[in-house]
Amino acid sequence: MPGISFGREMGGDAKRFASRVDDALLGQDVYGPVGLFEASAAEQGPRGCGSVECTGGWTRPWRSKKRPIFEGHWGCSGRCVLAMVRAAMRRETGDRRAVTETAGSHRHRVPLGLVMLAQGWITHPQLKAALQAQRQSGSGRIGDWLVSECGLEAEQVTRGLSVQWSCPVLSTEGFSAQAMALVMPQRFVQEFGMVPLRVAGGRLLYLGCDDRLNASVAYAVEQMTGLKVESGLVDGVQLTAAKANLLNADAVQTNLEAVADEDSLAARMTAILEHRQPLAARLVRLHQYYWLRLWLESGTRGLAGSLPRSTEDMQDCLFTVGSAA
Ligand SMILES: [Zn+2]
Question: Which residues have their alpha-adjacent CB atom under 5 A from ion ligand 1?
Answer without folding.
Answer: 49, 51, 54, 76, 80
